Amino acid sequence: MQLFEDFAITVKMSEDPEAANATExxxxxxxxxxxxxxxxxxxxxxxxxNLSIPMQKTCDFENMDGPYCNKVxxxxxxxxxxxxxxxxxxxxxxxxxxxxxxxxxx
Length: 106
Known about the structure:
- The protein has a domain at 10-52.
- The longest helix is centred in the middle third of the chain and has 11 residues, at 42-52.
- Helix content is 26%, strand content 9%.
- By secondary structure, the chain is α+β, with helices and mostly antiparallel strands.
């Protein structure tokens, strides 16, 4: 699994960095003051790492025996899955089947 993607942040110098950061629409552009000698990047690195990690661990459908696949949960999901061939009767439509075919269509 590749953890990092390509992330780019542009840091620009400005006389009024607070106002420039407030009006900047591009989230990848950040302004610092001209007299600043250090740049704290720990928040950016934290965000980059969090954006790089997958939101959830998944199993490949074809290979569902991986280390993150719970066999019991998979069997439960299979048992409650709706079968495409199974006709599910909706009680709302019960009684309306007598009107099928009245206009010549089935």
